[in-house]
Amino acid sequence: MPQIRHIAFATQDPEKTAEFYKQAFGFKEVKRVAPGHPLGHGVFLSDGTLNLAFLKFTTDQIGRGMDYVGLHHFGIAVDDIAGWQEKLAAMGAVSVMDPVDEHAGGATFELKVKGPDGVVFDVSNRHWLGAEPLSDKTEKK
């Protein structure tokens, strides 16, 4: 079963916002992206299960303007990104960003899609840093 493993927030001050959540809840910092990255910069935290990203984006990926602050998108870990890309397209989901292999010089490793209500979500076959890997446990009924 696909599982939520990533939640991204748009913020004007990623460092200050991340520091607040580190101090308040003890979340661990797992990565920083410096200013100058083509998609934006920010701080990634983990609670051991989820990857939480606090980002200042360089483009308006979700159509809310560059001053938008709040929930930006969430990410779902899947076993087969190509299969899910086909399934979601057949269901009418609109691709916002095609998957790119970050190890081949690309900027990201997830498929970014808009659902029927316009909410953006990622689908990835690799886990986000600090997030629990996709579980192969399924509940049998």
The poorly predicted ranges are none
**CATH fold type:** 2,3-Dihydroxybiphenyl 1,2-Dioxygenase, domain 1
Give the terminus-to-terminus CA distance: 14 Å
Shape verdict? globular
* CATH architectural name: Roll
- Note the run of SSEs as H and E: EHEEEEHEEE
Mean pLDDT: 85
Instruction: Specify the structural class.
Output: alpha+beta
Largest sheet: 8 strands, mixed
Lateral arrangement of strands in the main beta sheet = 2-3-4-1-5-8-7-6
Number of helices: 2
Within CATH, the superfamily carries the name 2,3-Dihydroxybiphenyl 1,2-Dioxygenase, domain 1
Relative strand content: 25-35%
Radius of gyration: 15 Å
CATH class: Alpha Beta
Summarize the amount of helix as a percent range: 10-25%
Query: Count of DSSP E strands?
Result: 8
How many structural domains? 1
